[in-house]
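Hey team,

Filing this mostly as a record. A colleague (T.K.) asked me to run one chain through the structure pipeline before their review meeting, and I want the input and output archived in the tracker in case anyone asks later how it was produced. No errors, nothing strange. Just documentation.

Input sequence:
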Amino acid sequence: MSGAAAPTALAEPSERVGRAWTASLSLVNGAIWAGWYGPIQILLALQAAELAPAGTAKESVLAWVTGAGAAVSMVANPLFGALSDRTTSRLGRRTPWIVAGVAGGAVALVLLAGARSVAAMAVGWCGVQLTLNAAFAAVTAALPDRVPPGQRGAVGGWLGAAQILGVVAGTGLATAGGGVADGYRACAAFAVLGALPYVLLHRDMVLPAGRRPAAGPVAVLRGLWISPRRHPDLAWAWLTRFLINLGNALALLYLLYYLRDVLRRPDPGGGVLVLTALNGVTLLGTVVVGGIWSDRTGRRKPFVLGAGVIMAAATGLLAGWQTWTGALCAAALLGVGFGVFTSVDLALMTEVLPAAADRAKDLGVINIANSLPQVAAPVLAAPLVHHLGGYRVLYAVAAAIGLVGALLVRRIRGVA
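Output structure:
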């Protein structure tokens, strides 16, 4: 491993991080997202269509499986974050969990490739969520561990760029893999390879045993609760993220089915890849720029508000302009908004954390606002599509939810 002695684990970072560290952390972040979104964008939908029992809608099977996985994610992220905060390994607090999480995720993806029933599919996807969330909790905590506040928008922008590139890479691997099973295996290999540079080349901070927070099961579980009354800014920031992500999850959940059943695209899987790539291009145009601009102005809330409004407008296009051209425009506009939101909201979240000793756990609780929408979206989407007006109503509701989330960021008082 390279580099000087690691800084004190619980100190507020003041030294700017270098490009190599940022690039390596971004790569492992993108690799994790590829492991998630190759399945979410393509493979789980295809597998659900193959394995759905007679008389059961493929949409329902997909909703059950993704909902179960998201429920596991909600528990796993803060729990593994809390364990990471308490890890005193000579390899540091975060690195052991990145290694174990990515390796476990690769194994779970390979097992998912061999699923031959809905139950096996659900177990495999829950395993993927469990393990990759262990790695993701550690990766996310590295931002407040190592990056000074004035650089977090920029580094958050690079992490966001890697996130969307990971989504594109996962979608591409799933599409080009030659079949569902090969697509899962390709995503597994990519996740492992993407984690190696950070693990092998960069030294993590070691937490002295005497500084470790209480590690008993009761203390860990009790610490997962963060009082909204004592930390109102964190509560409003969490709600903002949850609602914006819920609107986004509603828009993306049935995208493959929307292209196939509403727009009648002859190659819906290829259509998803085109939209994802277009979204990625426009996102890359704003994610780093938005983070740097936010750092330079010292403000976060106006960027999150504006990004949320743009995302809501993009989702509204899917409701009012149901053509392939409309879908292309929506994907491009969504990328513009989500790019700024991804970088600046992450920086905002690190600035409302209650304590340095619990960074990974607290960010894990915040990340529930990413995974809970995956549980709520299928519950809301299925009846909207089948009983309450179809895809037009689905996307109108998604736009309204995202807009409310954007407006609530104004309730945060401790961040400009």
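Quick notes for T.K.: The chain is about 75% helix and 0% strand. The radius of gyration is 20 Å.
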